[in-house]
Sequence to fold (364 residues):
Amino acid sequence: MAQAATGRSHRIRHEPELDLLPVMNLFCVIIPFLLLSASFLEITIIEMSPTEGISTGAGTTSLAQSEEQQLQPKIILTNEELFLGTVFGTRSISRVFLEDRNGEMVNSYDYEALSEALGVFREELDAAFPSIPVHKITILTVDDVRYDNIVMTIDVCAYHDFNQPGLQVAAYNVLQRQIAAGAGGE
Amino acid sequence: MGAPTKRHLPLLLGHNKSKAVLRGKNKKVTLNLTSMIDMFTILVVFLLKSYSAEGQIVSLSDALTLPESWSDQKIELNLEIIVTNDAIIVDGEPIVFVDESILSEANPIPILVERLSDHLEYTRQMRGIIDESEMKVNIQGDVATRAILLQRVMSSCAQAGYATQNLTVIKVEGGDEQ
Fold:
């Protein structure tokens, strides 16, 4: 102990200090490592269902079809319009409009209107056929509909619990026959 | 900053310093790291949250832009098929080059069916038995891919024996608040 000239002992008070340098070193190693391995894009999947051949009408029935197949709705995407075909009939939901996507003007549809229509259909379906779970939906398109439009349509369907989408592509005249046949049932 | 006043000037020049100031001359200067540690802790927690121990099980091609989706179904390790408007690539190998003849028909593509069947047969021979979970493919398509091309690829997969086709997408937030 330090003895002062006066003979009195002086205790030097030290404030306890944490040595933060090892922690800093650890952080300096761990942060670049985590930054390099961090993935800011999350990749997911959409599982597609196998689809049967195009039937003669959106809401037509046959003995070979299961109850779920008979009630299964169809979304028809053409280069002019978007239709929703259900067991209650086929109706137009929206017309195509041009949208700027990453600097490119591309065809788009009114997905909010589609969501609204599917919501109404889901309610009607649950009220009329509460014992039949309907999760399948068919997306019928003409051959040059963009992939991102198909994915957006699938998203809207999944939101209303139609989470088993199938894709079918057909010529415009085949789709027109579908629309005409379905509209007759309305 | 204004000019120093008369009162502050001697101190600034080092004259007439008090004894207390002179005694502190030999003091060890330490950095206060607490605030930096706080910041680093927040940063580490954020990065740990976005860290995936599984690693990336898909390699994204530079030649395409994947569509965005609300789907939150986790990706599995399956056979990868990349579909762009120029080519169809299976497991990193270009199989079909896309031209007007490919886009004008709606049937399965024979070369693609053959390649996929070979792959399935190879897997079957290597493992002895193949279950349904292995008969899946992941399809990476560019946003601008035409529906007819996508449908031809999907029907080729189905014909080759891959009953389940998954579309690879980039997850975006949404769907809940719609």
Q: What stands out?
A: Residues 110-127 of chain B form the longest helix (18 residues). Chain B touches chain A through 55 residues (CB under 8 Å).
